[in-house]
Amino acid sequence: MFFLNIVAIILFSFLFITISWGQNVDTKNLLKSWDGLGPNSADEVSVKDSIRQTVVLNQTEIKTIYFSAESKAEDASGESKIRYSIYINLNYADDSSEGGINCTFKPGTHDWEKVEGYYTPKKPIKSVEYCLLFREHTGRAWFRNAVLTESGSKKDTPVKIQSSTSVSIPFTDSRISKYGRYVDDSIGTNLTWEGSWLRFKVSGTTQIQLNVQVNLSSEATGVYSCYVDNGVRVSGSVRKPASDQDQTITLVSGLTTGEHTIVIQRAEWRKDSSIVTDESIKIKNIILDDGGSLSAWPQTGTYAMLFLGDSWAGEANSVTRFMDLTKWNIWPVAFGGFSVSSMNTYYSCKALGIPQTDPAQQLCVIQFGVNDYNGGVTEATFKNDVKSIMNKVATEHSGIKFFLVQVPANGQNYFDKYGTVLSELAEENSNTYYISTKSIADSLEWSDKFHLSMASRRDVYAPFLDAQISNCLSRRTGKP
């Protein structure tokens, strides 16, 4: 009898361990503490707007996820909508994404309420962003016992999961202002030159996403630079698809829901070869949160200005977006790494097989020197290259005025090497002005060997160009 009891205990213990192990596989909470210091997400936390965690799953097969939390509220305004909820965003293994999966809490005043849901994804999940929202409500809300688990199948009847409705604005919307060299076709907008940009305002959204069609020979990072309220940039990336494939990339997240100005600029995902190949990234739609809105934010300047340059007028180091756009209506034509010779080669090309057709311009700023100097271009060659591009521009824009800018130098010899020939060109040609930057050289700060810091571009260099161009327009000669 004693032997049988021992066997029974061993068998019961083995069964208990097996059951417990199976439960742990299915019900292990994947969330950590909200302060990031421990494994416990059960602690009570007060939320105003949102808190979130990203959990990497790297699924190799489709598995259902389960999520739950408890919340209590005090005078929470509004209706039971997704802005007071558990809110789930999924990133799939193929780098596509899905958002808006949610379970909502009741508004008003109430004690602890638990909501929960299961969701079976369309594809294996790479990562889950788990959010607790209390957004655009007055009153107060607390959360506790937040749970995210992964299981092989749906086991219980879930609380109904409401799908968030996003706002999708097509690329043809007239409220989206487009400047620089881009190509619109039946699919989308392809910003073919790095200087090109889109401008608009948004409100009522916490994020900005782009639905793009991608045709690349390899992966591209930093595809677009997105500037919010003229601040520092954030950028998006795309992966090489098997063929022309739609992808959704998130440019900005974590916005407050007030009004924001937005500039989306082509960034440096390829060098000049991408202008003359069939590689493309076409913006099809701008996607905002449910309830988000987009409004026009055009340049309002009275002077149409063609701005030719290298990375100083394109990609992450652009000075043009800081200039007075109530005075200048800037049409940037720029590409990082360009010399004047490169501009001469590609000036007449908008994209593969498509000649450029810029709108009529009154003024033209030509700002080169960094890449020419690094390439060992002589003064005579530099002068001939600048004159050549001036001739091309003048042929297309009758009576245009030129402003030849001597690029600031970070310990380099651009001043002495090219300043004299730019001054000579201003003397030798009508409607041509030379702008020296020597007077501000000591007040500039640099982000690297060749580019100004954002603060210097915004607070020193852009206002200096505004003032110098205005001053030149008041004179009759091109002498400095």
First and last CA, distance? 111 Å
* Count of distinct strands: 28
Q: Which regions have little confidence, pLDDT < 50, spanning 5+ residues?
A: 6-25, 155-164
Radius of gyration: 29 Å
Q: Helices and strands: which structural class?
A: alpha+beta
Mean pLDDT: 83
In brief:
The chain has 480 residues and is α+β, with helices and mostly antiparallel strands. It contains six helices and 28 strands. It has helices at residues 2-27, 340-346, 370-374, 379-396, 414-428, 454-473; strands at 45-46, 49-56, 64-76, 84-92, 97-104, 108-119, 125-134, 140-151, 162-163, 167-170, 177-179, 183-184, 189-190, 197-203, 207-215, 220-228, 233-238, 245-253, 260-266, 280-288, 293-295, 303-309, 328-334, 349-351, 354-355, 363-367, 401-405, 432-435.
If you had to describe this structure to a student in words, what would you say it looks like?
Helices cover 19% and strands 37% of the residues. The protein is built from six helices and 28 strands. A hairpin with a 4-residue loop joins strand 4 and strand 5. Helix 2 (340-346) packs parallel to helix 4 (379-396) and helix 4 (379-396) packs across helix 5 (414-428). The N and C termini lie far apart (111 Å).
